[in-house]
Amino acid sequence: MTDDPPTRVFVALWPSAEAAAHLQAALDALDAPLRWVPAERRHITLAFVGDVDGEGVAKVVQHTQQAVRSSAPLHLQLAGAGRFGSSVLWAGVAGDTEPLAALARAIGWQDEQLRSHLTLARGRGKPDLRPWAQRLADYAGPEWTAQDVTVVRSLLGPSPRYEVLERIALTTP
């Protein structure tokens, strides 16, 4: 057993630089009074693991390596938008969504099925996010190929940040 403090861990995909820049241009045009997720933290969560100790992190990495070993690269696109209540505005994911869902299921860690999305903003107070979701409903970013998944540590605090613990290639045997 280790004395390391628990680490909050998740498994994710990141959009390509081109897809991220295209999305940022669309968001800049909105001029919305929302609390935007910084571009470097925008990702598609495949599995939220939660708090784990040092030994647990190694197990998460090993489990994820096993889960993705027969997964091919994914052709994805950020497209459309929606909201979770009045607190989260998100961009949808299009393209290889069935293989993406299968990959998330293979990685596991949570009981509920995740809806593939990329969180864009969190509301301040309880704003009406419907107009912003509607303005982004027809958004279609460039396609990209996700070549890997990442196991990420979330460092919480006034300005949360992410640290990539392991990058695992998506390759078919």
TrEMBL record:
List of catalytic residues: H43 (proton donor), H117 (proton acceptor)
GO MF annotation terms: 2',3'-cyclic-nucleotide 3'-phosphodiesterase activity; ligase activity; RNA 2',3'-cyclic 3'-phosphodiesterase activity
Pfam families per UniProt: LigT_PEase
Short motif HXTX 1, span: 43-46
Domain Phosphoesterase HXTX: 17-87
Keyword check for Acetylation: no
Keyword annotations of the record: Hydrolase, Ligase
Enzyme type, top EC level: hydrolase
Entry annotated with the keyword Hydrolase: yes
Transmembrane segments: none
Annotated motif HXTX 2, positions: 117-120
Catalytic reaction annotation: a 3'-end 2',3'-cyclophospho-ribonucleotide-RNA + H2O = a 3'-end 2'-phospho-ribonucleotide-RNA + H(+)
Enzyme Commission number(s): 3.1.4.58
Family affiliation: Belongs to the 2H phosphoesterase superfamily. ThpR family.
NCBIfam families per record: 2_5_ligase (TIGR02258)
Its job: Hydrolyzes RNA 2',3'-cyclic phosphodiester to an RNA 2'-phosphomonoester.
PANTHER family documented for this protein: RNA 2',3'-CYCLIC PHOSPHODIESTERASE
Protein name: RNA 2',3'-cyclic phosphodiesterase
UniProt organism field: Motilibacter peucedani
